[in-house]
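Pipeline run #58 for the internal structure catalog. This entry was flagged by the ingest filter as a single-chain record with no existing model, so it goes straight to prediction. Upstream metadata was stripped on purpose; only the residue string is passed forward. Reviewer on rotation: M.T. Logging verbosity set to normal.
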Amino acid sequence: MVVNVLGDVIHVIGFQSNPNGIPVNAVKWAPSHVNSVRSASATIGVNGGSLSIPGSDFTITFPYGALSQSTNITITSDASGYVSYDMQPHGLTFRRPVIVTQRLRNTAVYGTPLASNAFCAFFAKDLLDLGGILKALEIETTTIFANPNTGQPEVETWLLNHFSRYMLASG
């Protein structure tokens, strides 16, 4: 028997791209989450590796061959109150997709129907205000995992092909 440590897959949202923008809403952190700047940096090479920001329930995994050379990677979770990340160096593209794992328990969608339809959205530039309806250029392939005992969405994974600014969003 194969056990998925992330839970049962309950929904997969496929990649979408639109140069004119896709209307989305940024997902906020739950009131219990402490909004502060958190970051992680490391040099990741051809053999891959991972970075985590525990206070943001975030992990990014670089598989073998994602990078063609050693690269200094920095991921920053900002203090905006939204589940958003600046991933640098901007414009870096991957030979194989990297995998982001975002736990939902400290987000405002946790325990709501919106958790089953949240996804990763890409924005080409930093936005000063993440409130209201925003125009994402891409929605990344997102897989939502539920707790096998409760059916509650607990974790999302995103596949990224390049670096820039990303956030957890809903449509």
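catalog note: Residues 8-34+82-170 form one domain.
catalog note: The chain has no helices and 13 strands.
status: ready for reviewer M.T.
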